[in-house]
């Protein structure tokens, strides 16, 4: 969790609910709130007419969404935030978030670490996109997903996303993702059991 729930509520956070496919915020809107997921899953995505969807990232319970955009005063959201399932979100006004961060240096550090982790992954992933090797792109995403798991053993991580979602996360065609996963299974890099991918 980025910021403790009780602290957010003390500083005036509201609880909002989203249904699947409902927008938390839309591309080109001005950032005004800090959002933290209490329950559910939210994706940051761009919809390109004719090209389908490119998922920038997926955020889960306890994670914040779009917080870095609050500190770019004159910029608007470059992405949409869309609920992937029923969600409960803590929403705190920008000015109240600043007061909360000012109140405790440890909270500031924790917040900055979270932002730094996201930025680091963005650079790693963007670097993988410059390579022509689609396998490397998919493995970069799988490595990132597995990063927070305590168990690092081979096949210990059950990938929580469908092939279509992996396709949207990597910018690869779904057929390419399926082909790469089959190849990785033969190479014993992943295991596929009843359609689920283990890495």
Compact summary:
By secondary structure, the chain is an alpha+beta fold. Helices cover 38% and strands 25% of the residues.
Describe this structure in words.
The protein has 199 residues and is of the alpha+beta class. It folds into 2 domains: 5-118, Jelly Rolls, CATH 2.60.120; 131-198, Orthogonal Bundle (Arc Repressor Mutant, subunit A), CATH 1.10.10. Helices cover 38% and strands 25% of the residues. The chain has 6 helices and 10 strands. The protein has a 4-stranded antiparallel beta sheet with strand order 1-8-3-6. A 4-stranded antiparallel beta sheet has the order 2-7-4-5. A two-stranded antiparallel sheet has the order 9-10. A hairpin with a 3-residue loop joins β4 (42-48) and β5 (52-59). α5 (163-170) crosses α6. The protein is globular and about 55 Å long. It starts with a helix and ends with a strand. The model has no long low-confidence stretch (mean pLDDT 90).
The radius of gyration over CA amounts to: 18 Å
Corresponding CATH architecture of the largest domain: Sandwich
What is the residue-averaged pLDDT?
90
Approximately how much beta-strand content do the residues carry? Answer: 15-25%
Distance between the termini: 24 Å
For this structure, the CATH topology of the largest domain is Jelly Rolls
Main sheet: which strands, in order across? 1-8-3-6
Our count of helices gives 6
Largest sheet: 4 strands, antiparallel
The CATH homologous superfamily name of the largest domain equals Jelly Rolls
Record field, number of beta strands: 10
Please write the string of helix (H) and strand (E) elements: HEEEEEEEEHHHHHEE
Helical proportion, percent range? 25-40%
Q: Indicate the overall shape.
A: globular
- Find the structural class using helix and strand composition: alpha+beta
Parts with pLDDT < 50 across at least 5 consecutive residues: none
* Number of discrete domains: 2
> What is the CATH C level class of the largest domain, in words?
Mainly Beta
């Amino acid at each position: 969790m980025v910021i403790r729930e009780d602290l957010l509520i003390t500083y005036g956070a509201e609880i909002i609910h989203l249904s699947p496919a409902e927008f938390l915020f839309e591309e080109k809107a001005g950032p005004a709130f800090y959002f933290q997921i209490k329950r559910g899953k939210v994706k940051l995505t761009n919809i390109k007419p004719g090209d389908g969807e490119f998922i920038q990232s997926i955020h889960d319970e306890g994670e914040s969404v779009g917080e870095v955009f609050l500190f770019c005063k004159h910029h608007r959201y470059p992405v949409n935030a869309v609920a992937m399932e029923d969600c409960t979100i803590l929403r705190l006004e920008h000015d109240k978030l600043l007061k909360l961060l000012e109140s405790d240096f440890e909270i500031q550090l924790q917040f900055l670490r979270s932002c730094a982790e996201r930025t680091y992954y963005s650079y790693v992933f963007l670097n993988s996109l410059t390579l022509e090797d689609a396998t490397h792109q998919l493995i970069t995403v799988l490595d990132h997903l597995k990063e927070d798991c305590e168990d690092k053993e081979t096949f210990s991580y059950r990938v929580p996303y469908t092939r279509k979602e992996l396709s949207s996360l990597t910018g690869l065609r779904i057929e390419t993702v399926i082909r790469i996963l089959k190849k990785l299974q033969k190479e014993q890099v992943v295991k596929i059991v009843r359609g689920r991918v283990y890495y």
